[in-house]
Write a structure and sequence with these properties.
Elements (H helix, E strand, L loop, with lengths): L2 H14 L27 E7 L11 E2 L2 E7 L5 E6 L21 E2 L3 E4 L5 E5 L12 E6 L5 E5 L4 E5 L5 E6 L16 E7 L4 E6 L5 E6 L5 E5 L28 E6 L4 E6 L4 E6 L4 E6 L12 E4 L7 E6 L4 E6 L5 E5 L12 E6 L5 E5 L6 E11 L10
Parallel strand pairs: 2-5
Antiparallel strand pairs: 1-26, 3-4, 4-6, 6-7, 8-9, 9-10, 10-11, 12-13, 13-14, 14-15, 16-17, 17-18, 18-19, 20-21, 21-22, 22-23, 24-25, 25-26
Length: about 400
Amino acid sequence: MDRRTLLTTLAAAAAGALTDWSSPAVRAQGALARPAPGSPTADRLPVYAVDPTWPPTLPNDWILGDIRGLFADDNDHLWIIHMPSSLTPQEIGAAVKPPIADCCVPAPPVLELDAEGKFLRAWGGPGNGYPWFDQEHGIYIDHNNFVWLGTSNGMHVMKFTREGRHVLTIGTAGVNKGSNDPNHLGGPANFYVEPKTNELFIADGYINRRVVVYDAATGEYRRHWGAYGRRPDDTEKYTYPVNPAAPPQQYSTLHGLVGSKDGLIYVSDRRGNRIQVFRQSGEYLMEKFVRPETGGSGSGFSLQFSRDPEQSLLYLIDGTNQRVWILRRRDLAILDRFGRPGRQSGEFIRAHMIAIDSKNRMYTGEAGNGRRIQRWVLKGTRPVASVTPPPGM
């Protein structure tokens, strides 16, 4: 049995043995996110401090690999998708045959924790009737309580119930036909479902270079667009450094995607070091470069809104400079930032994903050698006038 098969088999077996905890229906972050009292705004910026007591230890000697997706539901439960195959034999010594250490075992790919970090349920891995992912990536819970999952190196998206029952697959595992094919995907990274239309928006961007939209109930194709709302072109070469005066006309790695209450779609082009904003039709509105000189994996990882009624702040997590950037949503002006590289509490190694719950607690997930989730507690706010604008504007 090869290592990947071993990990997924262990994960599936562990998930099948878990108690199925019931939970009320949830609403998605984004268009139906509840405003939170005392939320930061574009006039009062957040002051966050890391909570060193969080999270509690997982059961069953489980350990997490690369954090590939985070989502805070309307019950303030944190949903996690990680990549078990990123773990080394030394990290999962108890799972090696024969065991080489007392601990640990890879956790199932999908986990749900309550508001205090207590484990509730886990599932994922190979199952009947669907192909599981080689590299898990992205998790989203829609207004109908379905869980959407994707993959950074694969070609399909899957829809599940909260309990892990497979409902729908979009795309075909192992089949990519380029950024203008309506029925096949290429590295779908993150998702948003619009409650009014039940349309699924996908950042189809690790292999393809587009936003693509499907009917979330049937998987029927609706439309797609590339950078600036134009037809994507997979033949265009991508070069560094990025020059905002002559910006790339195609996406490099379309990674983050969120939908706002006022009907806009915000995407982050990771190696393109930028955010772009669209109407849901695909009409381009504006863009912002964040540290455009950043090379390697770029600055534009994942996005989330503040929890004030206007969603007036946009948070961008940057896994190369190891920052959380804070932007004014209406015009994408950079207002502040926090974070620095490092392995200690409150620092980042490969910052990757971000989520914010209804109590303004921020969760950040790290991939690569980080492989951890940190919780940040809102300690207060401060006026914008008191903040020195950071570099990168």
